[in-house]
Amino acid sequence: MPEDQSNPQSAILERARRVLPAGGFGNYAADVVIARGDGGRVWDENGVEYVDLLIGSGPMLIGHSHPEVLEAVRAQLPLGQTFFANNTRGIELAEQIVGDMACAEKVRFVSTGGEADMYAIRLARAHTGREKIFKFEGGYHGMSDHALMSLAPQVMVNFPVAVPDSAGILEHVRDTTIVAPWADPEVFVQLLDEHDGEIAGVIIEPLQRIIAPPDGWLELVRAETAKRGIVLIFDEVVTGYRLAYGGAQEKYGVVPDLCTLGKIIGGGFPLAAIAGSDAIMAHFDKALVGPEGFTFQVGTLSGNPIAAVAGLATMDVLRRPGAYDQIRANGQSMMDAAVAAFGKAGIPVQIVGDTTLFELVFSDRPVRNYRDVLKSDKAAEGRYNELMRERGILKPPGKIYTHLALGSEELAQVNNALAETAEIMGREA
């Protein structure tokens, strides 16, 4: 059959279906193929242009192909791509992170945020000599076995029972995972009491997906874990350098024992990190802790100089006066437009999250945890995402990533799309 010259993307998608499970990479919807990105926009293989609110699932906070990032990468390319050895650019990035993140005294690089979370969990076990890991229902911490317990359960069970989110997870993982509802102080303390002396670490997104912590919640988690000798891990793969330059630690004023970082610190290239106190990070150093306490970790691309210079250039842009004010103003503009549009259409929505990362949840009730999100109108959510994409807005299901590359034209297009989407949904209701 001859290729449809007016729809080259269809031929590419057919090729993808022949070689990729479900025809995609397992990330965003498999029916679109992105050809290029520039600033706050992307284009698919058919030349269809979108305002990008997906931004690579978060890392492109200053936009695609930022000239300063490109310049830094071009300067590094002829000097070498990766060495599986120390390099000056990676060391500079580690120094920057130690200066930026309140909990960071030492840094160890990996390639993905999921790896960082996995190693942070392992460090907590190595440091405490305990086995159990405490997490919160609906919290995302990568793709390791413990991370994929009660991330998105469709069947509600009693806490603290964990529900596997994937086939292939060993049964015993359930027995070493304690799951609690997000931001429920009474249940949290009760479960800590019931498992006193057994819990190695509590891993938590300070902003869980899009749900902001209520006043006093993170402070309670910090106080209770410190009192019991439990390692507190902030998963800042998303929130690091997004909620504030110093991450959630800066925004909320709560300092964990370890944090994990990713996305933004690589400037669009594969790089992530575990950062934390000298005492815990020492488990990566056999000379300090001996064979019994040593946590083994290597990675072919860990700390590679291409990602390091891209991350450093990105951080330099974010440090400039007004950068975060602009990111937040962009988010507030879209939030205000959504409230006005769906209010006019008579469709109940909750604007959930932070001005740097938020979403519309189709519910007439406050959204406090994962189960509240699960109870929302999923058909309406699907229609909203469909109509926004038809109007040239690329966004992931469940969130909107605000970023610095949204100019007045992009914001106008997003806000007009919200108004048109709400009007259509109001007529269809």
Considering the chains and any ligands shown, give keywords for the structure:
about 425 residues, alpha/beta, globular
Walk me through this protein's architecture.
- By secondary structure, the chain is of the alpha/beta class.
- It has 15 helices and 14 strands.
- The chain has helices spanning 8-19, 67-76, 88-100, 113-128, 171-175, 185-194, 217-228, 247-252, 278-281, 286-293, 305-318, 323-345, 370-374, 378-390, 408-428; strands spanning 34-38, 41-44, 49-52, 106-110, 132-136, 177-180, 199-204, 231-235, 258-261, 272-276, 350-354, 357-361, 393-394, 400-401.
- It has a 7-stranded mixed beta sheet with strand order 4-10-9-8-7-5-6, with helices on both faces. A 4-stranded mixed beta sheet has the order 1-2-3-13. A 3-stranded antiparallel beta sheet has the order 11-12-14, covered by helices on one side.
- Helix 12 (323-345) runs parallel beside helix 15 (408-428) and helix 14 crosses helix 15.
- The longest helix has 23 residues, at 323-345.
- It is globular, with a radius of gyration of 22 Å.
- The model has no long low-confidence stretch (mean pLDDT 96).
Task: Please provide a brief summary of the model.
The chain has 429 residues and is an alpha/beta fold. Helix content is 40%, strand content 14%.
The tally of strands reads: 14
**Beta-strand level of the residues, as a percent range?**
5-15%
* Secondary-structure class: alpha/beta
In DSSP terms (H or I, runs of 4 or more residues), the helix count works out at 15
Unreliable stretches (pLDDT < 50, length at least 5) are none
Report the span from N to C terminus. Answer: 42 Å
Radius of gyration: 22 Å
Largest sheet: 7 strands, mixed
- Percent range for helical residues? 40-55%
Question: Mean pLDDT, as a whole number?
Answer: 96
The succession of helices and strands, N to C, reads HEEEHHEHEHEHEHEHEEHHHHEEHHEEH
Shape: globular
Largest sheet, order of strands side by side?
A: 4-10-9-8-7-5-6
